[in-house]
Amino acid sequence: MVLLICDSIEARSRxxxxxxxxxxKAIIDETINELLEDGQLExxxxxxxxxxxxxxxxxxxxxxxxxxxxDYAEAEKEAKKDGKTDKDI
Length: 89
Hints:
Layout: H1 2-18, H2 24-37, H3 48-66, H4 72-81
Helix pairs in contact: 1-2, 1-3, 2-3
């Protein structure tokens, strides 16, 4: 069950990142709701607290995996434009 959820969320998150509409919590909630509606989790026995723990862990992992990286060259240009020195950056 956990692998099914993780696999579905990973596939969906890759698509969302490419479209730049990435919201980890929304992706997780929507994916789990779709799996429930589709009946794929009908025979699964899991407590709601455990499901919430899974959602929290997955959200942290997705945020870390797909976080935007700092463009240091762009940040340096902006800092110089604002009159900041290299020590201020």
